[in-house]
Amino acid sequence: MHFAILPFFAGIALAARPWLYAPDTGAEDRYAELGIEKGSLPPLDEIHCLNDFEWAARNVLNSSIYAAFSGGAGTEGSYRMNQEGFQAYRFRPRTMVDILSVNETFTTQMLGYNFSMPFFITSCGGGGYIHEDGELNLIKGAHDQGILYVASMSASKSQEEIAGAAADGQVYFQQFYTRGWDDDKVKSYLDSVKKYGAKAIALTVDSAGDGDRWRAARYGAGSTDSDATYITWDYYDKLKSMTDLPIILKGITTVDDAKKAIQHGVDAIYLSNHGGRQLDGAPSGFETALEMYALDCFQEAPEVFQQIEVYADGGVRNAGDVLKLLALGVRGVGVGRSFMYSMVYGTEGVIKAAEILKHELTINAQNLGLSKLDDIDATYLQKRMFPNL
């Protein structure tokens, strides 16, 4: 009896443990050996994973700016689970498979546009607080690596500046909040999105209310705004009549809304809980994808992935996370904070972050036993048998 109870209390201890910035992979010790002092960046060639960029950003940004980017809503439960939720499922690798050319199969299409990788730089605002060139680093880095960039409506750089930094023929999308604007102002903004060259609009639908971000609020960076934004299916239909650009619904967190999106002819859906920054307790993109695929969930709608393009983000810190989302049928995987943190090194940091993910994707796909990336499906995943260990 005594030993049978131990796993139960171990589970409680794990659930109550203090949140750590990232798994300990030796970065702290290595940077101490190099004599990296507070306020200084490690050499870029000493950055070996996406979590290293967070360490670097935390070391050079002031506390208020770092809190604004790193924090989540409320207890930050959703923020933590965005990352930790991936560990609830293990891989089921295949062996004795020809994996020599899998790295040549990573290209993907999103809304008919070709990209080199199935991951992309998702919308995050305020880049000017991290680097003087702000989001210009992101669009330049995205072009260098052939990946999608979704520009934020809250970017520190204007639409015109971001468009001016884009390479000829570069495809990028524009994120959009309705912000309670009247129809004329909304129509004017949507027209400007097309004018400056964005090829699609990512309409954020998970922010009808503001985010209650306690960590940021301690530094005066949290919002005290209690205003609500009007976002309904009828309003979406009206928006469709204002532009001929595709509209992606960003912030879908249930099977129910995914099905409604299909009924309303939505071009693509984006599973996201806003980086855990809006509703504390909202499911991650991975959890929502699991719900759709009915892997140990109460809902079931795997047909969604065949009926509409699905993108997702939330807590992605390595290529293993990317692969788990792809296994469930997600078309494109968004990465936000890590690319923002990489901007402490400017455009070169953004490029390095993408290169790290590409390298990880190659070796993970090889070790998973994939001849080509399209072979991955839900049979490559299984729920952990011993979740408390």
From TrEMBL:
<comment type="similarity">
    <text>Belongs to the FMN-dependent alpha-hydroxy acid dehydrogenase family.</text>
</comment>
<feature type="binding site">
    <location>
        <position position="213"/>
    </location>
    <ligand>
        <name>glyoxylate</name>
    </ligand>
</feature>
<dbReference type="Pfam" id="PF01070">
    <property type="entry name" value="FMN_dh"/>
</dbReference>
<feature type="binding site">
    <location>
        <position position="152"/>
    </location>
    <ligand>
        <name>FMN</name>
    </ligand>
</feature>
<feature type="active site" description="Proton acceptor">
    <location>
        <position position="274"/>
    </location>
</feature>
<dbReference type="GO" id="GO:0010181">
    <property type="term" value="F:FMN binding"/>
</dbReference>
<keyword id="KW-0285">Flavoprotein</keyword>
<feature type="binding site">
    <location>
        <position position="274"/>
    </location>
    <ligand>
        <name>glyoxylate</name>
    </ligand>
</feature>
<dbReference type="GO" id="GO:0016491">
    <property type="term" value="F:oxidoreductase activity"/>
</dbReference>
<dbReference type="InterPro" id="IPR037396">
    <property type="entry name" value="FMN_HAD"/>
</dbReference>
<keyword id="KW-0732">Signal</keyword>
<feature type="binding site">
    <location>
        <position position="272"/>
    </location>
    <ligand>
        <name>FMN</name>
    </ligand>
</feature>
<dbReference type="InterPro" id="IPR012133">
    <property type="entry name" value="Alpha-hydoxy_acid_DH_FMN"/>
</dbReference>
<feature type="binding site">
    <location>
        <position position="250"/>
    </location>
    <ligand>
        <name>FMN</name>
    </ligand>
</feature>
<protein>
    <submittedName>
        <fullName>CYB2-lactate dehydrogenase cytochrome b2</fullName>
    </submittedName>
</protein>
<feature type="binding site">
    <location>
        <position position="174"/>
    </location>
    <ligand>
        <name>FMN</name>
    </ligand>
</feature>
<feature type="domain" description="FMN hydroxy acid dehydrogenase">
    <location>
        <begin position="42"/>
        <end position="386"/>
    </location>
</feature>
<feature type="binding site">
    <location>
        <position position="277"/>
    </location>
    <ligand>
        <name>glyoxylate</name>
    </ligand>
</feature>
<feature type="binding site">
    <location>
        <position position="204"/>
    </location>
    <ligand>
        <name>FMN</name>
    </ligand>
</feature>
<dbReference type="InterPro" id="IPR013785">
    <property type="entry name" value="Aldolase_TIM"/>
</dbReference>
<feature type="binding site">
    <location>
        <begin position="313"/>
        <end position="317"/>
    </location>
    <ligand>
        <name>FMN</name>
    </ligand>
</feature>
<feature type="signal peptide">
    <location>
        <begin position="1"/>
        <end position="15"/>
    </location>
</feature>
<dbReference type="InterPro" id="IPR008259">
    <property type="entry name" value="FMN_hydac_DH_AS"/>
</dbReference>
<keyword id="KW-0560">Oxidoreductase</keyword>
<feature type="binding site">
    <location>
        <begin position="336"/>
        <end position="337"/>
    </location>
    <ligand>
        <name>FMN</name>
    </ligand>
</feature>
<dbReference type="InterPro" id="IPR000262">
    <property type="entry name" value="FMN-dep_DH"/>
</dbReference>
<keyword id="KW-0288">FMN</keyword>
